[in-house]
TrEMBL record:
GO biological process, one term: DNA recombination
Residue stretches making up the Tyr recombinase domain: 210-310
Organism: Proteiniphilum acetatigenes
Pfam families recorded: Phage_integrase
Coiled coil start-end: none
Entry protein name: Tyr recombinase domain-containing protein
SUPFAM superfamilies from the UniProt entry: DNA breaking-rejoining enzymes
Domain of life: Bacteria
One GO MF term attached to the UniProt entry: DNA binding
Keywords: DNA recombination
Length: 310
């Protein structure tokens, strides 16, 4: 059932408050929504739909996905409209505007978001895990659509063809997500047949049989020496590689490293790992400390928050 545009916008504003968006952002997004409402009135549109929001975005910004060199005003408009679309469809707010629109075409389009909410509420999955599942299922859906097929046509051979394709990264993660989704559809009587057994389990391999790959000290030194530190980008890249090399930090932790995590008096770096939520503490090495100071003074933009890597 379609909802009145004004009602949806008012509820969207309340949702922004509940999610902790700043007053400035709420005002900015509210202005975009207000202009959208005026545009709808001019076009005699009373109820809101994703197609209506998309049409307005295309008219005002020329795009529905992120575009290179998009003016700030259009970027903000696009961002606000995509969040409004997320809210309208009952989806989690996307972290950023994608460069490519992720669309569903098969029966999954009506059930992927209820499934993801179930994953969040019943299984307790982290937001990053839910995003990964969304992308995996989108690729699976598009794979079936490209072959002009739907879930009713799924076979073991068809699934194995998908998992062997270039679209798949970690086969174990892809298979686990697709299998769980198919099981969910059967348990909730959306599918009359359980298709989860059509996703074959990956053979177990002992980790001891695999030789771990690492960079030698000489390779790391060569990599660091190859970075041009005379530019702001070079200072940033040097710091990123140094954090990974010295502390073994994951990319998700590097991009979230903040000034509050550094104790200059005690010479420590302390934070909770994003993936595991395990607190860790490292000594602040002089090489790392000097690289951070060099980047903060001569490379990092000044009008940003406390996150170090920008």
């Amino acid at each position: 059932m379609l909802k009145k545009i004004k009602k949806v916008i008012d509820e969207f504003q309340l949702e922004l408050i509940d999610m902790g968006y700043s007053q400035e952002l709420r005002w900015t997004y509210g202005k975009v929504c207000r202009l959208f409402g005026e545009w709808a009135d001019d076009h005699a549109i009373d109820c809101v739909s994703e197609e209506t929001i998309r049409a307005y975005s295309l008219e005002k910004t020329g795009c529905w996905e992120a575009a290179i060199n998009l003016p700030d005003k259009d970027r903000i408009t696009l961002r606000a409209l995509r969040l409004l679309s997320n809210f309208l469809k009952g989806e989690p707010f996307e972290g950023r505007t994608p460069l490519k629109e992720h669309r569903f075409y098969t029966i999954l389009k009506d059930h992927v978001h209820p499934y993801l909410r179930w994953c969040e509420e019943e299984k307790g999955y982290r937001p990053s895990t839910i995003r990964d599942k969304f992308w995996i299922l989108c690729r699976y859906d598009n794979f079936l659509h490209d072959k002009m097929l739907d879930l009713k046509n799924v076979t073991i051979g068809l699934n194995e063809e998908f998992f062997a394709s270039d679209a798949c990264g970690n086969r174990t993660n892809y298979k686990s997500t697709v299998r769980e989704m198919l099981q969910y559809l059967f348990d909730f009587s959306i599918l009359v047949k359980d298709l989860s057994p059509y996703v074959l389990k990956e053979p177990k391999r002992s980790k001891h049989l695999e030789i771990p790959t690492t960079y030698t000290t000489e390779e790391i030194k060569f990599l660091l020496s190859a970075i041009d530190r005379s530019t702001p980008k070079g200072k940033r890249d040097y710091l990123i590689v140094l954090l990974a090399a010295e502390y073994g930090m994951r990319a998700s932790d590097i991009v979230r490293l903040s000034l509050k995590h550094i104790d200059w008096e005690r010479n420590t770096v302390s934070f909770s790992q994003y993936k595991t939520d395990v607190p860790v503490q490292y000594p602040l090495l002089s090489s790392v400390g000097n690289a951070i100071i060099d980047y903060l003074r001569h490379g990092r933009p000044t009008e940003v928050n406390d996150v170090i890597i920008v």
